[in-house]
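Notebook entry, structure prediction.
Reason for the run: the old model in the group folder had no record of what sequence produced it. Starting over properly, with the input documented here first.
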Amino acid sequence: MQEEVKQSYIKAGRISAEVLEFGKELIIKGNSLLDATEKIEKKIFELGGKPAFPVQIALDETAAHFCPLEDDKTTFDSQIVSLDLGVHVNGAIGDNAYTIDLSGNYNDLVKAAQHALAEALKIVNVGTELRQIGKIINDTIQSYGYRPVRNLSGHGLDVFNIHTKPTIPNIDNGDKTKLTKGMAFAIEPFATTGDGIVGEKGHPTVFMLERKRPVRSPITREVLKEIESFEGLPFAERWLTKKFGAKANFALRELGQLGIIHKFPPLVELSSGIVTQAEHSVLIDDEGEVVVLTKV
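New structure, fully documented this time:
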């Protein structure tokens, strides 16, 4: 890994960590979810980064891929709130997450995800097998009396690529692939009171450019040009509607029909279990040193 790429990862991780701490302070009863989201995204730019994906604030049984629309009226009350954000610097990504219990009823569920992450980080090294990470996450969460979300996982990070190999499981899936020098990845335990399976549910508000094709509509071409400026990273419907108004919705429909963009509906725990999340990004450099990029 080139030194400038390593330093970009380190800077992205530092900004991610700082913004996550900033975001936690906005998650209080009575605050607007949309306002918090936009302030967090603004903070990323202020600190010299760019969003690696839209800031996501998931509530209760929603685990991932929720991003508010421009007219969202949700306020924080007594929910379980998971804040997941990523920052990129020159394409190198820092990704982290934290859950806050505004209800006061799920402190142990929050601890289960956080403790699982901490235990997983203890065994990360060159040669660690992916299944070993999954086993320790699973065992730690189950020790609290909960289940891991089995079909969500951590993931490799690459330049302008938020989800790549390796997949970091939250259970022992038997994968004997070993961590190696030069890897960047996110470890991302999810704990739940439910059965531990999520599925797509609801209106997608997060998208990603999948392939480039010519389009005939002038409106769609204009919106597509903006989408291409995100350099292949996920983007929010809200980012486009704020700039293009209703034209953005027309363009998104057409781009979806043409297979140019991929949509990501919210992921919800299928037995309506409450979900908590914890996440850090890790770099194993060319010398084999393990750097937790997003640790404060």
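Summary: The mean pLDDT is 97.
The old model has been moved to the deprecated folder.
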